[in-house]
């Protein structure tokens, strides 16, 4: 892909053209090409890392943290379910994943996007959290952490939490569903 002729004169190479060609690959986030005189060309590549599987209708694809579609084979990524008319909320869902990983230890398994004010985070332990978006999660993370710890340590019968209202949260009993 770099298309550098072997045995050619490196003085004639345009590093920026090679970088642009390499960055055109979906897997490449950033490329840095430098000449090491008299005869070497150093290429450094930062690869895009898969962040989530996205489902929009019957289409499933993988994206990195910036929402760029990339090829991937990993099946243990967070799944994000977006309705056709809510594609614009992809970056908000990816921000939720990033914030969740930064603040919490319990793995996230999926995010169901219902609207711009309702994101349902599904945890691997079966608990769900209803929130309005990443700012709502940031604001309520200090309140939510002790409850999640109590659920895992004390095996409380909790279906989930709704953090959308007021300064506190609502505990949803285990028998209620996501709707």
Summarize this structure briefly.
This protein is α/β, with parallel strands linked by helices and 179 residues long.
What would you say this structure looks like, in words?
- This protein is α/β, with parallel strands linked by helices and 179 residues long.
- It folds into 2 domains: 10-47; 64-173, 3-Layer(aba) Sandwich (Rossmann fold), CATH 3.40.50.11690.
- It is built from 3 helices and 11 strands; from the N terminus they run αββββββαβββαββ.
- It has helices at 15-23, 90-103, 134-154; strands spanning 28-36, 40-47, 52-56, 59-63, 69-70, 78-82, 108-115, 118-123, 128-131, 158-162, 170-173.
- A 9-stranded mixed beta sheet has the order 5-4-3-6-7-8-9-10-11, covered by helices on one side. The protein has a two-stranded antiparallel ribbon with strand order 1-2.
- Helix 3 links the parallel strand 9 (128-131) and strand 10.
- Helix 2 (90-103) packs across helix 3 (134-154).
- It is elongated and about 70 Å long.
- The protein starts with 14 loop residues before the first helix and ends in a 6-residue tail after the last strand.
- The mean pLDDT is 89.
What keyword list fits this structure?
3 helices; Rossmann fold; 179 residues; 25% helix; 9-stranded mixed sheet; elongated; alpha/beta
């Amino acid at each position: 892909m770099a298309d550098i002729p072997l045995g050619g004169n490196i003085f004639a190479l345009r590093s920026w053209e090679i970088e642009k060609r390499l960055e055109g690959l979906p897997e490449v986030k950033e490329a840095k090409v430098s000449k090491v005189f008299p005869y070497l060309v150093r290429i450094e590549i930062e690869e895009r890392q898969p962040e989530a599987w996205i489902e929009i209708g019957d289409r499933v694809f993988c994206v990195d943290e910036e929402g760029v579609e990339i090829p991937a084979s990993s099946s243990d990524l967070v799944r994000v379910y977006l309705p056709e008319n809510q594609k614009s909320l992809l970056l908000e869902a990816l921000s939720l994943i990033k914030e969740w990983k930064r603040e919490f230890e319990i793995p996230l398994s999926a995010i169901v996007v219902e609207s711009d004010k309702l994101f349902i985070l599904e945890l691997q332990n079966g608990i769900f959290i209803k929130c309005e978006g990443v700012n709502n999660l940031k604001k309520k993370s200090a309140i939510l952490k002790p409850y999640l710890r109590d659920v895992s340590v004390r095996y409380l019968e909790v279906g989930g939490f709704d953090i959308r209202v007021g300064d506190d949260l609502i505990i949803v009993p285990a028998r209620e569903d996501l709707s």
